[in-house]
Amino acid sequence: MIDLLDLVELLDEQKNNSETIKIIKSIATTTDALEEHK
Question: Residues with Cβ < 8 Å from 4, sequence gap 6 or more?
């Protein structure tokens, strides 16, 4: 599975939609938090 933070970096490099980047960063942060609680 691709690391979401790596995906964000790819999107940043490609100057993609900043809203999409914000959403992905939010998802990545949530995913990390959930992983810590396992």
Answer: 24, 27, 28, 31
The pLDDT tens digits for 10-25 are: 777 666 567 777 888 8
CA distance 29 to 5: 9
Distance from C-alpha of 33 to C-alpha of 14, rounded to nearest angstrom? 27
Helix axis angle, 18-36 to 4-13, nearest 10°: 160
End-to-end CA distance of the chain: 18
Total residue length of the chain: 38
